[in-house]
Amino acid sequence: MTNLSYPPKRVLMGPGPSDVHSRVLQAMARPTVGHLDPYFVELMDDTKRLLKYAFKTDNELTFPVSAPGSAGMETCFANLIEQGDKVIVLQNGVFGGRMKENVVRMGGECILQETPWGEAVQPSALEELLNDHDDVKIVAFVHAETSTGALSDAQALSKVAHKFGCLVIVDTVTSLAGSELLVDEWELDAVYSGSQKCLSCTPGISPVTFSQRAINKIKSRKTPCQSWFLDLNLVMGYWGEASKRSYHHTAPVNALYGFHESLVMLHEEGLENSWKRHIEMHEKLIAGLESIGLKALVKKQDRIPQLNAVLFDSAIDEAAIRTKLLNQYDLEIGAGLGPFAGKIWRIGLMGTSASLSNVNHCINSLKSLLP
Ligand SMILES: *Cc1c(COP(=O)(O)O)cnc(C)c1O
C-alpha cells in the first residue's frame, strides 16, 4: 500500500496547480498563530499590499478569499448581482459556462454570447449585443480561458462595457502574474483569481479586487447578498482596516503564510519580468512541440503563454500517453475538456513551472512516448 505520508514528487505542467516552490511550502510549516494575533494582522496587511502590486491596482478592497478560485468567482457574482439584473456573459470555454451558472443562481437574467472554443472573445460582438439590449448592468468574461488556451482583450472589452454604463466582472485565475493585467488602467470592476496557477502557491486561496464603482453598486443593494460567507460587507469586518478587525471566519493561517511568500517571490522577481518569463518559456515550448510534430490549437496572437492547448494525431491513445508521462516521468499535463476532450492536451507553464528545465523535460518525455 502507498505510504500516504509521502506524496510523489511530480512536475506539474497541467492547468493548475503548478509547481510550488520550496520557500512557499516552508512558509506554510511556520508556527500557527491566532487569526487575530498582531503578527497575523501585520501579515494580512502586507498580503493586501503585495496583492495590489500583483493586480496593478490601488483598490482598497483587495484581499484573498479563504477558498479556491471558484469562491472568488462566487464572491464577485453574489455581491454584484441583484434579483432581475441583466448580465451579459461572454463564453468561449468551460469557465464562461460557470459564470452563466452563477448569474442564474444569483437571480440575474443571463444574456449569453457564445464564441467558438479556442478563440478570443470579440469586443465588436459585445458592442452589438449591448446595442440590442437595454439596461444591462454587468458584463462578465474570462481573461485567460484555461480550458482552451485563448486570451481575450480585457482592456477593449472593459472599454465597450463602460461605454454602455456596465460594470465588468473578470476571471483572471490563469492570467494573474502570467500575462499582462492592469486592473486600474483597464478599469476592471470585480476581478478574481486563484493561488495555484501563476502565483504558484498551493490551491485554496482566491485573491479578489473591487473598484469604487463596484463598491457603490454593492453599497446600494436593496437586498442582502444571498451568501453569508461571501458577503463583502461582513468579510470586510475581518479584512478591512487593521485597527477594527473582528472575527468573521477563521482564516487559513498557514495557507496564508504560503500565499504571502508566493507574493513576496513575485515582487522579488518583478511582475513585468514574470510576464516576460512566461512568454519566453511559451515560445521555447511551442518550438519544441513543433519539432516533434505537435501543433498549437489557438492562433498565435490569441495564445495564453502559460496554458498551451496542443493538437495531436487522432490515431494515438492520448490517455495512455498521459498515464505514462505520470508513471514514467512524474510529469502531469492536462487533458482536454468539453468539446476538446480527447482532442487536445493542455500544457501549463504557470509560475514556478515556467522554467527551461520543465520545458525540456516535457519535450523529451513526450518525444520518447510518441509513435
Ligand atoms: C482554475 C480556474 C478556475 C477555478 O479555480 P479553482 O481554484 O479550481 O476553484 C476558474 N477560472 C479559471 C479560468 C481557471 O483556470
CATH superfamily of the largest domain: Type I PLP-dependent aspartate aminotransferase-like (Major domain)
Mean pLDDT: 97
Note the run of SSEs as H and E.
EHHEHEHEHEEEHEEEHHHHEEHEEH
The CATH architecture of the largest domain: 3-Layer(aba) Sandwich
Widest beta sheet: strand line-up: 2-10-9-8-5-3-4
Multimer state: single chain
Please tag this protein with its features.
single chain; 371 residues; alpha/beta; Aspartate Aminotransferase, domain 1; Aspartate Aminotransferase, domain 2; seven-stranded mixed beta sheet; five-stranded mixed beta sheet; 40% helix; 16% strand; binds pyridoxal-5'-phosphate
Task: Chart the SSEs and their pairings.
Layout: E1 11-13, H1 22-28, H2 38-55, E2 61-65, H3 69-80, E3 86-91, H4 94-105, E4 109-114, H5 123-132, E5 136-142, E6 144-145, E7 150-151, H6 154-163, E8 167-171, E9 190-192, E10 206-210, H7 212-219, H8 232-239, H9 253-269, H10 271-291, E11 295-296, E12 307-311, H11 318-329, E13 331-335, E14 344-348, H12 356-369
Parallel strand pairs: 1-13, 3-4, 3-5, 5-8, 8-9
Antiparallel strand pairs: 2-10, 6-7, 9-10, 11-12, 12-14, 13-14
Helix pairs in contact: 1-9, 2-9, 5-6, 10-12, 11-12
The chain binds pyridoxal-5'-phosphate.
Explained architecture:
It is a single chain. The protein is of the alpha/beta class. It folds into two domains: 11-17 and 270-369, Aspartate Aminotransferase, domain 1; 22-267, Type I PLP-dependent aspartate aminotransferase-like (Major domain) (Aspartate Aminotransferase, domain 2), CATH 3.40.640. The chain is 40% helix and 16% strand. The chain contains twelve helices and 14 strands. A seven-stranded mixed β-sheet has the order 2-10-9-8-5-3-4, with helices on both faces. Strands 1-13-14-12-11 form a five-stranded mixed β-sheet. A two-stranded antiparallel sheet has the order 6-7. The chain is globular and about 60 Å long. The two termini are 33 Å apart. The structure holds pyridoxal-5'-phosphate. The site of pyridoxal-5'-phosphate has 12 residues, from helix 3.
